[in-house]
Hints:
- By secondary structure, the chain is α/β, with parallel strands linked by helices.
- The chain has helices at about 1-10, 105-120, 135-145, 165-190, 195-205, 215-220, 255-260, 280-290, 310, 315-325; strands at about 10-20, 25-30, 35-40, 45-50, 60, 85-90, 125-130, 150-155, 225, 235, 265-270, 295-300.
- The chain is built from 10 helices and 12 strands.
- Strand 9 and strand 10 (about 235) form a beta hairpin.
Amino acid sequence: MKALRNLRLLTQLTSIRHASSGANRPLKVLTKHYDEISIPVPWGHIAGKWYGPKHVRPLVGMHGWQDNAGTFDTLAPMLPNHISFLSIDMPGHGLSSWLPPGISYHSIDYVLVTRRLMEEYNWDKISIMAHSMSSINGFVFCALFPDKVDMFIGLDVLKPPVRSARHIVDALSERLEATLKLERRLRSGSEPPCYAWDELETRLHEGSNKSVSMESCKYLLQRNCKPSTHEPHKYYFSRDNRLKTSLFYTLHNEVPLEMASRIKCPHLFIKALQAPYYERKEYYDATLVELRKNPLFEYNELDGTHHVHLNEPEKVAPIINSFINKYRPL
């Protein structure tokens, strides 16, 4: 606790203001100086928040499905000061460009985004800290490019989940139809449904199955909503609605096991005990057996929801910092 108090003395409190019931209300947010950056990609740009010096190759933070770079706002000030940290918005999320019309989002695209990021900055290696959807993609990246990762920290979701053949076929049919429906709505140019700020917080909280605490909603909403052009004091969710019909990995159980066998870098995984496994636990456990063959793999469990890193970063930071200091010391 003493270290945490000292850290808070080194950080700065900024005030975020938002509208609620027609009145501005200040919110105190523990934060640390960062620069907004824009990384060019063929369809536009990837937005991000860079903490620390630019000449130090950063630990790259990658968020979960329909979240954004704000997912690490509370954890970033607690990371070691000797390492830079870059938290990015994936395509269609936060402040990053949407994919072009007619293109669907697929998990493998985010793996390619990671390679694009490395090429932009001429990095031979990358250090990754990833949550949920991005933890899955980080797992895949480490398997496909084992020599390009010097450190991987996965939060709560271990790997691509295994689904039954019936589930895969049904889901593909449903998502493709839903994609066409969403595209028709997007072509109409109509503004998405709008809400008062307090309603936005409630919808985000409940939409995450109460994984994101009410107090933590503001960190995601800062990059996830825009003011309505038609209704004063109301806002709408500004992420790409096509994310709701994203196409995810459809893999046979042997594929994640093969992937796990190829991960050789230092690998930390933290499981939140109040979060589901998102698949039959036997598949999860089998992959853990394979991952533990890597002498650089570390596994931790702790109490908290799927977003424990955002809600209670003080629980997660000591584990992560110990790992960082071991493999990327001062």
